[in-house]
Write a structure and sequence with these properties.
Elements lengths: L5 H12 L3 H6 L1 H23 L33 E6 L10 E7 L3 E7 L4 H13 L1 H8 L2 H7 L12 H4 L1 H4 L8 E6 L2 H5 L3 H24 L2
Antiparallel strand pairs: 1-2, 2-3, 3-4
Helix pairs in contact: 1-3, 4-5, 4-10
């Protein structure tokens, strides 16, 4: 099923050169028609497919899509708009930090991924404990052929210093030092414009679901 057109990318290409309120207001109709509406339809479609195998998936597409307006309060870059659309797919909306999936589609940057990007200290400790006690299962998930093909592996910043309990184990499983547990794959405009883009996204997500399930089990356990 096709959701996006060349006009979607053309809008962001021009926005990148004219990132100001005056230009955006003059092109708001284009944004609504070529960007916002197709992205929302795409997001809802993906949600509708995911919920078939996970009834706890959050189903309100509007609350899963990030606003195009930037928060410029603490940024040196005062351009008011993002040059992409993005959405999360999980148990909550955009403010939910639990494991989920992510789609980011702009004119220059296009990627999909998921995992846990900003876990709390409490959840990070729970994930490390789960890895420590279930490393064989964790390692098997990461070696899955589909996951490796699509995402390569887990990314994220690491702690330079670990507590004593984890130092020795780090030799066996270096990912115990991670502060983030996310994965990402870059895609192309050609792939986004293809009729089977939704199926491609869902296949990527399916290959990462065992990892998300592992992470969710970790933070859900007492």
């Amino acid at each position: 099923m096709s959701f996006f057109t060349k006009e979607y990318f053309a809008f962001f290409k021009e926005l990148r050169k004219n990132n100001n309120k005056q230009w955006f207001d003059a092109n708001r109709a284009r944004y609504e028609q070529d960007v916002k509406e197709p992205f929302k339809l795409f997001t809802q479609h993906i949600i509708n497919q995911l919920v078939k195998s996970d009834e706890l998936i959050f189903t309100n597409a509007s609350k899963c899509i990030f606003r195009i307006n930037k928060d410029i309060r603490f940024s040196k870059d005062k351009s008011p708009y993002k040059t992409n659309m993005a959405a999360v797919f999980g148990r909550g909306g955009t403010k939910d930090q639990r494991p989920g999936f992510y789609v980011h589609i702009g004119n220059q940057e296009i990627f999909i991924g998921g995992g846990m990007y900003m876990p709390s200290k409490e959840d990070l400790e729970k994930v490390r404990q789960e890895i420590l006690y279930s490393n064989e299962e964790f390692s098997k998930i990461l070696k899955n052929k589909a996951f490796v093909k699509n995402f390569g592996g887990i990314q994220g910043e690491k702690n330079k210093v670990l507590q004593v309990d984890y130092k020795e184990f780090q030799k066996e499983q270096p990912l115990i030092a991670n502060k983030q547990f996310y994965y990402m794959a870059e895609l192309t405009q050609k792939e986004v414009l293809a009729k089977d883009f939704d199926k491609v996204v869902l296949s990527y997500f399916q290959s990462a679901k065992p990892l998300n399930d592992f992470l969710f089990r970790a933070i859900s356990s007492d």
